């Protein structure tokens, strides 16, 4: 998730917000999607999530080297959302 989050950063997760809302996005809307902590096929990850329709989930990275990952229908069951990342802090690197 660089440049927003770096390896070793601390994050605060709101576990009550574990269901990313379904919402269409106006093309003029320049806001970034919210960041969520999730388990994807047994692997802990942190990604931005968009849900344009109930049967589509997009996992997005801030790093342009990583393409968006799409989950359709039953593939969405492999993603367990832990909660929304509401705060993060960079750690001191000596």
Automatic annotation (TrEMBL):
Pfam families: Peptidase_S24 (PF00717)
Top-rank taxon, per record: Bacteria
Domain Peptidase S24/S26A/S26B/S26C: 1-86
CDD domains found in the cross-reference section: S24_LexA-like
InterPro entries cross-referenced by the UniProt entry: LexA-like (IPR039418), LexA/Signal_pep-like_sf (IPR036286), Peptidase_S24_S26A/B/C (IPR015927)
Protein name (database record): Peptidase S24-like protein
Native organism: Gemmobacter caeni
